[in-house]
């Protein structure tokens, strides 16, 4: 009899008999489903693990769904321009560019894509791969040294050094140069900005700071206005007394231009502060120069002797001079410079200056006769003869009082074209050359021999470097302004009046005075003779020379006092180099 119920369902007995077997099949089915789902999950993780999550962008480039190599290729293509496009730096109202390649900036593609691919069973990672990724910035690789160098170059666009102003007194005028601030860039900060911002950020702002000059413009303006301008406010009036004058004429005055006084002012700066100093010696010199040019101050004038005719000697009286006491000039004048208007007045003590040769001395020692004379002869005519004539006319009439020293250089002064001298032959470094005043060494030699035979004391003379046949051996003297001079001291019993005359054929110098000695010249033989060389010269400045041997010679001067007394003598040696035989080949 069947146990199944009429409705077709199993009875409880039937169910009790089949229950364990059915539950076993259910468990197996569940496990199977889980295995299938797990396999699908793992398969999904494996598949998506080799690809970038969907909708992912790196540096604005879409790389979603791509495997690693595809993503890198896409990223390199998409960022090519961004990686090489110059970045811009702005600041201080201007701008400049930096080449990222030269600045050591490169895109780090490995770092930029890192973590976007790779197997993971983490549900969050799997879901992210399936549903889509995010956006991320590009990563950069930075060469710090190259970037620092590039920033240093770019910074120069914005940077400027402060301008150091100055104040000076030049040729008596106040000269100022304005100070100005400079600008510096914080280079380290700019390097940091670019390192952290590139390549996402294309424009950067340079942080700048102000650099102050050592000497501020305010200090320049203050110092000029408050301290220097008053010094140059106007001339300083000098008042003094003329001891030689009488009555109201004893009070004399003159003005010193402010510009001349300002030449004594120097300006210095110390740690941003300006100050000035006044050279008292220069102040004194400026005052004396102004007083002299105005005619208020005058040098003492020695008495002079004039020869009229052949034996008519007369005396031009000496004159007392007026000068200021040097120690009393600077202080009152510097004090007056700090004042203004009518208060710029300084009272300075004066003193009378006496002549070296007074009228009484000149009359007592007036020349009586010709005490020496000497003549040399011209070898050529031309510019050198004209120079000799000019110099002789200026030497003629010179008076040398007892005890005075005469300098031919001081008497003639510089030989220049402005004074009428012409270019003619001179000796330079053992060779003939051309220079203004060439030829007047013949006048110097003639003067030297007049000195020699007068017995006056020879102070300085310089023989020519090689022997010139128109002069006596050893008794000749060249001259060159200002170093090579011809000087003598009048140690005779009277004043010496010099007469000089030059013609086309000769030049004569005569001394008139009181004859004190009879003079004899003795010359020794030539010795140490050296023959000249032969030289061919193609230079444009070449001057031909005729050969003359070089040698040494000794000259002795013997002095016999007029009226008796001990005879004295003195000797000097002269060394001549050879005058080489020079042929000029340059036309």
UniProtKB/TrEMBL annotation:
Keyword line: Membrane, Transmembrane, Transmembrane helix
Domain YoaR-like putative peptidoglycan binding, first and last residues per copy: 134-197
Membrane-spanning intervals of the chain: 27-48
Domain of life: Bacteria
Residue numbers spanned by region Disordered: 1-20
Any Pfam family matching the protein: PG_binding_4
Keyword ATP-binding tagged: no
Composition bias type Basic and acidic residues, residue spans: 1-12
The keyword Transferase is annotated on this UniProt entry: no
PANTHER family, per database record: EXPORTED PROTEIN, EXPORTED PROTEIN-RELATED
Protein name: YoaR-like putative peptidoglycan binding domain-containing protein
UniProt lineage: Bacteria, Bacillati, Actinomycetota, Actinomycetes, Micrococcales
């Amino acid at each position: 009899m069947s146990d199944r119920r009429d409705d077709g369902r199993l009875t409880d007995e039937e169910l009790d008999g089949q229950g364990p077997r059915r539950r076993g099949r259910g468990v197996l089915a569940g496990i199977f489903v889980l295995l299938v789902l797990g396999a699908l999950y793992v398969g999904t993780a494996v598949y998506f693990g080799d690809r970038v999550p969907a909708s992912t962008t790196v540096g604005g480039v879409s790389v979603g769904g791509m495997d690693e190599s595809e993503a890198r290729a896409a990223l390199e293509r998409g960022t090519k321009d961004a990686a090489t496009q110059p970045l811009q730096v702005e600041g201080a109202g201007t701008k400049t560019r930096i080449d990222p390649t030269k600045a050591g900036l490169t895109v780090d593609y490995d770092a930029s894509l890192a973590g976007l691919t790779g197997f993971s069973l983490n549900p969050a990672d799997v879901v992210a791969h399936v549903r889509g990724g995010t956006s991320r910035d590009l990563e950069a690789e930075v060469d710090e040294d190259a970037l620092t160098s590039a920033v240093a170059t770019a910074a120069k666009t914005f940077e400027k050094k402060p301008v150091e102003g100055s104040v000076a007194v030049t040729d008596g005028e106040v000269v100022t140069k304005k100070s100005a601030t400079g600008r510096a860039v914080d280079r380290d900060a700019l390097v940091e900005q670019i390192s952290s911002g590139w390549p996402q950020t294309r424009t950067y702002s340079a942080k700048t700071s102000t650099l102050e000059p050592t000497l501020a413009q305010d200090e320049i303006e203050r110092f000029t206005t408050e301290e220097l301008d008053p010094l140059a406010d106007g001339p300083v009036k000098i008042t003094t007394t003329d001891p030689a004058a009488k009555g109201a004429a004893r009070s004399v005055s003159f003005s010193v231009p402010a510009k001349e006084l300002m030449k004594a002012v120097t300006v210095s700066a110390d740690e941003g502060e300006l100050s000035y100093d006044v050279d008292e010696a220069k102040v004194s010199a400026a005052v004396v120069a102004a007083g002299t040019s105005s005619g208020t101050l005058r040098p003492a004038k020695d008495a002079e002797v004039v020869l009229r005719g052949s034996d008519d000697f007369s005396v031009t009286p000496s004159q007392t001079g007026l000068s200021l006491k040097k120690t009393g000039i600077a202080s009152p004048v510097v004090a007056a410079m700090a004042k203004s208007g009518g208060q710029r007045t300084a009272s300075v003590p004066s003193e009378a200056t006496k002549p070296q040769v007074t009228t009484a001395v000149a009359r007592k020692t007036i020349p009586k006769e010709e005490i020496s004379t000497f003549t040399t002869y011209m070898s050529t005519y031309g510019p050198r003869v004209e120079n000799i004539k000019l110099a002789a006319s200026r030497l003629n009439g010179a008076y040398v009082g007892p005890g005075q020293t005469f300098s031919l250089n001081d008497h003639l002064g510089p030989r220049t074209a402005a004074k009428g001298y012409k270019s003619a032959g001179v000796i330079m470094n053992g060779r003939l050359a051309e220079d203004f005043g060439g030829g007047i060494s013949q006048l110097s030699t003639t003067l030297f021999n007049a000195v020699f035979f007068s017995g006056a004391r020879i102070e300085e003379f310089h023989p020519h470097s090689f022997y010139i046949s128109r002069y006596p051996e050893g008794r000749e003297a060249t001259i060159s302004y200002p170093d090579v001079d011809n000087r003598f001291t009048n140690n005779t019993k009277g004043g010496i009046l010099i007469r000089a005359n030059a013609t086309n054929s000769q030049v004569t110098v005569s001394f008139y005075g009181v004859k004190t000695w009879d003079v004899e010249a003795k010359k020794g033989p030539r010795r140490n003779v050296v023959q000249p060389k032969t030289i061919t010269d193609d230079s444009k400045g070449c001057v031909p020379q005729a050969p003359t041997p070089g040698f040494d010679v000794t000259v002795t001067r013997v002095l016999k006092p007029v009226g008796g007394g001990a005879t004295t003598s003195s000797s000097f040696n002269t060394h001549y180099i050879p005058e080489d035989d020079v042929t000029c080949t340059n036309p």
